[in-house]
Structure formats: C-alpha cells, structure tokens
Write a structure and sequence with these properties.
The protein is an alpha+beta fold. It has one domain. The chain contains 9 helices and 6 strands, in the order H-H-E-E-H-E-H-H-E-E-H-H-H-E-H. The strands form 2 sheets. Strands 1, 2, 3 and 6 form a 4-stranded mixed sheet that branches. It starts with a helix and ends in a 10-residue tail after the last helix.
C-alpha cells in the first residue's frame, strides 16, 4: 500500500521540479516581450524579437574565412606608434558577430530611431557615455573573453535614458539603444581593436587545443547584449513608475 502511494507522490515531485525551470523561462520571455513593448514595438514584433534573439544567440557569423593568429600588416604600423612592447601573435582565434547579441539589437535600435521613438542626437550621447564607461571597465580574461560587471551597462543605460529623455515616455527606448549599442561599441568592438587585447585574451601559451571563439555580442542570451537591453529598459520603466506613482506613462505609444 505504501509503495502504491509513494509512486504518485514521486511523480508529482518530478513534475514540480520539471515545471520550475519552465516557469522561470516563461517569466523571462514575458518580461522580455514587455520590455520590447515598452520601447514602442507591438506585441507580435516583440515576440519575434525575443525568440529571434534567443535562437540567434546560438548563431555566430564569421568575420574571417579562418582563424587569426597575428595582427595584420596594416595594424602593425598602428602598433608602432605605441610605446613599449606589444605582442603581435597570439593563440588562434575565430572572430565573429553574434546574430542574437549583435545583429538583432542593432536592427531594433535602428528601427526605434527611424520610427522616431528616440532622438538620434540624444541616443548618440547615451551610446557615447555607455561606450566610454564600458570600455574602461571591460576586463580581458584569458581563454574566456571580455567581461563586465553584470549590473554596469543596464544601470548606466537606464540612467542615460532617464536623464536624456525629454519626457518619461522616451526613457525606455533611449535606455535600450544606449545599453545595446554602447556596450557593443565600448566593451566589444573598441576593446578588441585596442593594441594588446587579443594577445591578452588568447595568449600563445593558452592551454587550449581548439581556437578561441571571440564573438561580438556573443556572450549568450543570459549574459550578453540582449539581456543588457532588456534590463536597461526594465530599470528605466521601473524608475519611471516609482517617480510617477503609476506605470501608465512608462510605455511609449507606437
């Protein structure tokens, strides 16, 4: 009799354990869709952007036909202007751009600007501020990539959106553009172009048999540009709700 009762109980526990991660994934997707709707994207395109970003985070588009293990000749001339010795060769790397973490955020940001959801001039100021801070805060970790404090980009982007917005309704789109493009530009692109960063990321003595993959925007959907934009929008909208005592003005009309 005890064994008969234990079997359904164990099944219930198993189903609950299975349901917990599914619930978290569902909440993450809903929050992501809500964030895109806050910046002025309709529900259908918001869902498309979320699922496109999640699936696109698995896709890296190569920038070169093969691995790279030394700075190109034209870059060596640039290196000669820097004092001190900078290594010019490194463990082979693949250079790529991530579909979900780079291409899609750029397309969404361009859409917001072209549709007038954010001022181009103010967006560029926000992008510049986030790019400058993330560039100096980024850390090149050998064998891993360029790392940033998790909270830095979203919080800075939210502040830029709120400060630069002509009204609270414009804060979320500015926060999204500042956070995504600013982090891509400062932490990823400018960092990779800085002399000595590639040898620091992938030193010759790196204990790996395979080439290191360095993908712009490709840290993964749960730790990359996609999440930076989502959290920046939620930060900005949340602060708007606190200041106004209502969330009615936090959403931008399409």
């Amino acid at each position: 009799m005890f064994d008969f009762l234990f079997l359904p109980f164990a099944l219930v526990i198993f189903l609950l354990l299975l349901a917990v991660p599914l619930i978290f994934i569902y909440l993450f997707l809903r929050l992501s869709e809500a964030a895109f709707e806050m910046v002025g994207i309709d529900h259908w395109h918001a869902s498309l952007a979320v699922f496109g970003s999640v699936l696109g985070s698995l896709v890296d588009i190569p920038l070169t036909s093969g691995t790279v293990s030394a700075y190109p000749a034209w870059y060596l001339t640039f290196l000669s202007l820097y004092p001190g010795h900078i290594p010019t060769i490194f463990h082979p790397v693949y250079l790529a751009v991530n579909l979900g973490g780079c291409i899609i955020p750029l397309v969404i940001s361009a859409h917001l600007l072209l549709r007038g959801h954010a001022s181009f001039g103010k967006a560029m100021i926000g992008v510049g501020a986030v790019a400058a801070v993330t560039y100096y805060a980024a850390e090149a970790v050998p064998g891993e990539g360029i790392l940033l404090p998790f909270w830095l980009s979203p919080l800075l982007a939210a502040i830029c959106g709120l400060v630069l917005a002509g009204g609270y309704r414009r804060a979320p789109p500015l926060a999204y553009i500042s956070g995504t493009i600013g982090t891509l530009l400062g932490a990823d692109l400018l960092s990779l172009m800085t002399p000595g960063v590639l040898p620091a990321l992938s030193p010759v003595a790196l204990h790996q048999t395979k080439p290191l993959v360095l993908s712009i925007g490709g840290a993964g959907v749960f730790d990359g540009i996609f999440l930076t934009g989502i959290i920046a929008v939620l930060f900005a909208a949340g602060i708007v709700c606190l200041l106004r005592g209502s969330c009615g003005g936090a959403q931008t009309a399409t």
